[in-house]
Design a protein that fits this description.
The structure holds 2 protein chains of 2 kinds.
Chain A: H1 9-19, H2 29-40, H3 45-55, H4 59-68, E1 80-85, H5 88-92, H6 95-106, E2 119-124, E3 137-139, E4 142-144, H7 149-159
Parallel strand pairs in A: 1-2
Antiparallel strand pairs in A: 1-3, 3-4
Helix pairs in contact in A: 2-3, 3-4
Chain B: H1 19-24, H2 29-37, H3 40-49, H4 62-67, E1 78-83, H5 92-99, H6 101-115, E2 119-124, H7 129-144, E3 160-165, H8 175-182, E4 206-210, H9 211-215, H10 217-223, H11 225-231, E5 239-246, E6 252-257, H12 262-269, E7 279-283, E8 292-293, H13 303-308, E9 317-322, H14 327-341, H15 347-364, H16 370-383, H17 391-416, H18 420-425
Helix pairs in contact in B: 2-6, 2-10, 3-6, 5-6, 5-7, 10-11, 14-15, 14-17, 15-16, 15-17, 16-17
The chains are: A alpha+beta, B alpha/beta.
């Protein structure tokens, strides 16, 4: 751990504002981690140490939170990470075929990076909350639904 | 009865999330009325009269919940707004936040006035990026316009509203898991008592209400509790948002009076079953609710009726399954979710949900044996009523109901290593 992590000056200012929202410093844990991840792409051990320092908590407390929440990443994903909703409503509307097509299209297994580092993908067992668009996925934070092979072609093309 | 749209009035209207437009269309009038004409207790009484129930899923009477907050506490009282909606099949709070965020903010103001709350946190699930952006923008606009902040709507009343983003844990929709997460911890639910109304966020009295519940408040204050109560059934007032999905022609969010029968939702509003197939099963309130069979399609969708048939209205998420759905595979999908989302705190849940999932995985891979189905039945008895929160209870309710109503399909799959439904479609059922 020779490298170090710190918030950009803009994020440092934002963090000071966030602290004022809560009666305890520790409550700023999730916001701090969201900010660290947005800044760095994932939360490296140096960021855990940095956040622990900001919040006056032991590093293990940060690690515990980091490992509990599935949206906090401990390693980099593709530039565009695709999450296919695997929950019941999407499954009933054919999420299985979407998975098969993504595998064919991207040529990498779930959890792996494409050669150019641009894409990675996974199926999540939790419902993403857009069942009216089933089958759907989330990419770059946003929802894409009523998926077909053509629609997936477009989603990938736009980002290639 | 004409269809009354309370919450969904502006769904689909791109202008409605703009504050200036919303102010011209009734926005914040009910909150002004509450400040101008009503004492805080009168607001609570009106909500009690309305028979408004908690629409996150538990169905607890909202007004009564507020009365549990002590009036003589020397600590601040907080409002935690539950926008963590993650129960599979549920997407109605997202509609409110995306299309009409000012209705929610107005509801937050009314609740805060009634219970003397000066800080509210909206806990919104991390996956909801666009809903979060829209809500945050609406909150920022409300601050700029003096609707939130030091003098709410020009009154001597301070209210701050902050968003707090979750990070992908279903358990944080459980109210005490939410509080732990708000405090910067992993979302392990707390033992109750003490209840959050006494000891909630940061050790202080806390009201926790769902987005949809709070969004009903403006209309209740505008038109009166009795008006709202009359829209629904005996002990469940008003309308609610039903999130319809699965094998139907028109999945979506439909606002209907509490107590509307499933048949009306599925066939009149949802356009019937996909590809003209037959209805096989209904999950009435998210995947934690016991599955219903097709012959229960005329049941009214209200909390008390569904509790009587040992299921629940839950979050109002109605998932439809047609005749070609293999119930073993469907339950396998559902239990994958619970095994993944069990927080790991209580042994029966942590071990039970993943064990159930492993057994079901074995069966759908064709490697099961008849004794597996018996093991599932036994496991279910050990999961019900043995953990701190309702996650395990939900997993158990789903498991038990699938086994009870569609047990033959499980026995067949475990015995022959193939899906009964798929064999029947091919005309190749083993005898």
């Amino acid at each position: 751990m020779s490298s170090s992590f710190e918030f950009t000056s803009e994020n440092q200012k934002k963090f000071q504002e966030i602290l004022k929202r809560y009666p305890t410093k520790r409550a700023a844990m999730l916001p701090a981690m969201h900010m660290a991840q947005a800044q760095h792409g994932f939360i490296p051990p140096e960021a855990e140490e940095y956040i622990a320092g900001l919040l006056d908590v032991p590093i293990i407390d940060v690690r515990e939170v980091l490992s509990f929440y599935s949206l906090f990443l401990q390693e980099a994903k593709g530039k565009h990470h695709i999450k296919v909703c695997g929950s019941l409503s999407c499954w009933l509307r054919g999420s299985g075929e979407i998975r098969e097509y993504l595998l064919e299209k991207l040529g990498v297994d779930e959890g792996e990076l494409t050669e150019d580092g641009k894409f990675s993908w996974e199926t999540v067992p939790d419902c993403l909350g857009a069942c009216e668009l089933a089958p759907m996925l989330q990419v770059d934070g946003y929802f894409e639904g009523c998926l077909t092979r053509e629609k997936i072609d477009e989603i990938v093309k736009e980002r290639t | 009865m004409p269809i009354v749209k309370i919450l969904s009035e502006f769904f689909g209207n791109e202008q409605a999330r703009d504050l200036q437009w919303r102010l011209k269309h009734g926005g914040y009038e009910a909150a002004r009325k509450a400040f101008r004409e009503m004492q805080p207790d009168e607001v609570t009484q009106e909500v009690i009269k309305a028979n408004l129930r908690g629409l996150g899923g538990a169905g607890f009477p909202t007004g009564r919940k507020w009365t549990f907050v002590p009036k003589d506490s020397d600590k601040p009282t907080y409002l935690a707004v539950n926008c963590d909606e993650a129960e599979p099949g549920t997407f109605k709070d997202r509609y409110i936040v995306e299309w009409d965020p000012h209705r929610l903010i107005e509801g937050i103001i009314i609740c805060s006035y009634a219970v003397a709350i000066h800080t509210a946190y909206v806990y919104i699930r991390g996956e909801y990026v666009r809903p979060y952006e829209r809500l945050q923008k609406a909150i920022d606009e409300a601050y700029e316009a003096g609707i939130l902040g030091k003098n709410v709507l020009g009154n001597n009343f301070q209210l701050d509203v902050f968003t707090h983003r979750g990070a992908g844990a279903y358990i944080c929709g459980e109210e005490t898991g939410l509080l732990e997460s708000l405090e910067g911890k992993k979302g392990w639910p707390r033992l109750k008592p003490p209840f959050p109304a006494l000891v909630g966020a940061f050790g202080c009295p806390t009201v926790i209400n769902n987005v949809e519940t709070l969004s009903h408040l403006p209309k209740i204050i505008e038109k009166g509790g009795q008006w709202f109560a009359d829209l629904g059934v005996e002990r469940s007032g008003g309308t609610r948002l039903f999130a319809l999905s699965g094998c139907v022609n028109k999945p979506g969010v439909y606002e209907l009076p509490a107590g509307t029968p499933f048949r009306e939702l599925i066939y009149e509003h949802g356009g019937g079953i996909l590809d003209g197939k037959e209805l096989k099963a209904i999950i009435p309130g998210g995947t934690s609710a016991a599955v219903l069979s097709a012959d229960q399609v005329d049941l009214p969708m209200d909390f008390d009726t569904l509790a009587k048939v040992k299921s629940m209205a839950g979050s109002g998420a109605v998932i439809i399954m047609d005749e070609d759905v293999c119930m073993v595979k469907a339950l396998h999908n559902i239990q994958n979710f619970f095994a993944h989302e069990s927080c790991g705190q209580c042994t029966p849940c942590r071990e039970g949900t993943s064990w159930v999932y492993r057994i079901l995985s074995r069966i759908v891979e064709g490697k099961g044996s008849p004794s597996d189905v018996e093991t599932l039945r036994g496991l279910n008895q050990n999961m019900s009523g043995t953990s701190i929160c309702a996650l395990c209870e939900g997993a158990s309710m789903a498991l038990g109901s699938f086994l009870e109503k569609f047990g033959d399909e499980f026995d067949y799959y475990a015995k022959y290593g193939r899906s009964y439904v798929e064999d029947a479609r091919k005309g190749a059922v083993a005898v």
